[in-house]
Amino acid sequence: MGKYIEMIRIRFLMMLAYRTNYYSGILIYSINIGAYYFLWNAIYGDKGSIEGMSALQMTSYISIAWMARAFYFNNIDREIAQEIKEGKVAIEFIRPYNYLLMKTMQGLGEGIFRLSFFSVPGMVVVMFIFPIAFSTNPATWLLFALALVFSFLINMQINLLTGILTFFFYNNMGLIRAKRVVIDLFSGLLLPISFFPGWAQKIMDFLPFQGISYVPSMIFTESFSGSEVINAVLFQVVWVLILILPIQILWLIARKQLVVQGG
Amino acid sequence: MKYVQLFFQYAAQYMKTRLTYRTDMVVEIFSDLMSQAVNFVFILLVFGHTTMISGWSREEIIFIYGFFLVPFAIFGAFFNIWDFNDRYIVKGEMDRILTRPIHSLFQIVLERMELESLFGVITGIAVMLYAGSLLDLSMAWYDPFIFVLLVLGGTLVYASIFVLIASISFWSDSPTSIMPMMYNIGNYGRYPVNIYNNVIRFVLTWILPFAFVGVYPAAYFLGREDWYTYAFLTPVVGLVFFTFSIFMWNVGVTKYRGAGN
Fold it and tell me: Do A31 and B184 lie within an 8 Å CB cutoff?
């Protein structure tokens, strides 16, 4: 266990060395939030609420969704693809740790770094520019924190899956790029899943993506009520468990048919 | 003449290298299509809940998005120099560029072109035709020419902003993060500028004129006569900004000191 915690720490310190890179990141996210802020205000016009959400809740939703993205988002899929391409993965196999778990820990170190140097100060910046409703209920915050952990895990697992697919496709940069834009839409980052037409929502219920952004953001803005919150978090837990299966299977197959082209 | 010849030779070379890895290219075009589709779906979803956004209908917003895609694709094919600082200044590649017998910026455009991005022109025109047919837009014989002119104007606007930012690298060392920021600000141009407040509107018109890539020129084809002045300013703004950016580039090149070896 100790070595994995060490992984988190090292990645955190690595990120810390380049912390100035992140100030501009906050600005970029604020610019994105701004675009959606104006767009949504124009969409709401004089409508009081759409799909049970007020304009204020929508602004808060967009802001927290972007700032939460800073926490769960990482390029581990790219890193894995790179290591497979360069043949480094062969060395990783013989090292005394579980490669996938180690990658997860690195992602976590990155996440913790971004949470403290990006999301939190970013949220403060955004708070001064746009009107945002913060809940005063500690239970909401607690559930939000819990949901955020699971959203990290689901996103991480999807990254691991796309990364492992490099074993079979050799070059899957395109897939990784496509995955990113699809997740932006299907996870509820761009707009809440409740804004999708009914049939699309039914399909989404059978996919893990809304566990990434929609669930924590809806909890944060208190747009979910009562049992909806519990169901949403359970939805996340179930998906975290389900996703372990394809990852393990693909990993075992990949190990067997690994071809290293130099290294 | 020499420039035209060189351009086609480089383009031919580029096609050869890309066609060696055909799947790569297909996947790349596919992932571009994907991100365009996501934006398109976003507009459709939003209009499931409202009929008008600040006086613009669903089809009009789709049309504006379609128009935006065309200059953006051309820009992406030739002026995708977001990594200029890293690639040319930090690594000292600029030294090599300066030994070439053509203008340094043109040389970089030749080296960095990504022709597959031009696929976005087709997508954009298809989106415009779709929205246009729903809107019953009529087309005069001269409209295609105006379209070309406005697209060129929009492309120049985009290109000049990125050339300007690239030129900063000649003076200061780390403006790398400004580039991605510009891509995000550029997205503001995809929607009608009257949804933003006056400050942002002013910035998008006169300082970082991204509005001239999407909504202003598109307003001409949508027959929005109150926006015509801005629509016809598009090529002018494009030319003025581009001339200025070339001027700054040329001044910057004289300040270039090399990265050492």
Answer: yes
Name the minimum distance, in Å, from the CA of B185 to any CA of chain A. Answer: 7
* Mean pLDDT (whole number) for B2-23: 90
What is d(CA A188, CA A185) in angstroms, rounded to the nearest whole number?
6
Verify whether the Cβ–Cβ distance B178 to A24 is below 8 Å: yes
Q: Let me know how long chain B is.
A: 261
Size of interface A-B (CB pairs under 8 A): 90
Q: Which two tokens stand for residue A107?
A: 């992602």
CB contact under 8 A, A175 and B54: no
Name chain B contacts of A178, Cβ cutoff 8 Å.
27, 30-31, 34-35
Across chain B, mean pLDDT equals 90
Share of chain A above pLDDT 70, in %: 98
- Rounded to whole angstroms, how far apart are CA atoms A45 and B50? 9
Between A25, A47, A174, which is nearest B27 by CB? A174
Could you tell me which chain A residue has the CA closest to the CA of B175?
A24
Question: CB–CB of B184 and A191 under 8 A?
Answer: no
B-chain CB neighbours of A191 within 8 Å are 42, 45-46
Reported as type and span, the H/E element at residue A53 is strand A53-54
Give residue-wise pLDDT tens across range A25-38.
888 888 889 889 99
Residue A170 contacts residue A159 (beta carbons within 8 Å) = no
Q: What is the ipTM of this complex?
A: 0.86
Is residue B261's pLDDT more than 60? no
Q: Which two tokens stand for residue A50?
A: 């759409």
Cβ neighbours, 10 Å, residue B106: 14
3-state secondary structure of A126: helix
Q: pTM of the prediction?
A: 0.89
Taking alpha carbons only, the member of B157, B125, B121 closest to residue B221 is B125
Q: Do B45 and A195 touch (CB under 8 A)?
A: yes
Quote the CA–CA distance of A150 and A68 in Å, as a whole number.
Answer: 12
- Mean pLDDT, residues B214-222 taken together: 93
Q: How far is CA B255 from the centre of its chain?
A: 27
Identity of the amino acid at B41: V
The answer on pLDDT for A262 being more than 60 is no
pLDDT at A263: 47
Q: Which residues contact A213 (CB under 8 A, 6 or more apart)?
A: A65, A68, A69, A151, A187, A188, A189
Q: Where are the domains of chain A?
A: 2-256
pLDDT digits (tens, 9 = 90+) for A105-132: 999 999 999 999 889 988 998 999 888 8
Residues from chain B that touch A51, judged by Cβ atoms under 8 A, are 49
